[in-house]
Write a structure and sequence with these properties.
Layout (H helix, E strand, L loop, with lengths): L2 H18 L10 H7 L1 E2 L2 H8 L2 E5 L2 E5 L4 E8 L2 E11 L4 E10 L2 E14 L2 E7 L4 E5 L9 E3 L4 H13 L1
Antiparallel strand pairs: 1-7, 2-3, 2-10, 3-4, 4-5, 5-6, 6-7, 7-8, 8-9
């Protein structure tokens, strides 16, 4: 897996989330203004946001265990990959995923970080580096929530791990 592929997977994390989220409420003038008014989330808020939840995206997802271990699955061009590592949070709104991605023919370490801000009932997220702020959640119920309680990843991850070991 190339660095370009890893960057695509990291971008997929952000893109998958962006596809699953709602727009800002109509009363917010612009996303930029809302983000500017929002405050960085602290480590406790980030822990509550992610711990024990699955982050779904198009061809896979990630699970954030309460002990701060991180597992993920993804598929690119029909080729599966898995990630295992840790998630780290700061009091300045930053959450980083430090994991080794395993795929047919090898493995590669990767670090992907996101900034988080909250304002009112909204949570905003920015993929680093070079991402754009997006609305992660706005307090309204969503048919496709980005984060759901429970582990929806481990069963598929174990099957993919076994498949990759045979290749």
């Amino acid at each position: 897996m190339t660095n370009t592929t890893l960057r695509r997977i990291a971008a997929g994390l952000a893109t998958g989330l962006a596809l699953a989220i709602s727009a800002l409420p109509a009363q917010s003038a612009t996303l930029a203004e809302a983000v500017a008014k929002a405050k960085p989330m602290n480590a406790g808020e980030l822990y509550e946001l992610y711990a024990g939840k699955t982050w779904r995206w198009g061809d896979g997802g990630a699970y954030f265990a309460a002990d701060r271990t991180f597992t993920a699955i993804a598929t690119e061009d029909g080729t599966p990959s898995i990630a295992e590592g840790r998630w780290r949070i700061t009091d300045t709104g930053r959450m980083c995923l430090e994991a080794t991605w395993r795929f047919k023919g090898g493995a590669s370490p990767a670090v992907t970080c996101f900034q988080h801000r909250s304002g009112g009932r909204a949570v905003f997220q920015l993929a680093e580096p070079g991402g754009n702020w997006s609305v992660m959640m706005d307090g309204r119920p969503s048919q496709y929530p980005p984060l759901v309680r429970g582990d929806e990843i481990s069963q598929r991850l174990n099957a993919l791990r076994a498949e990759l070991a045979r290749r």
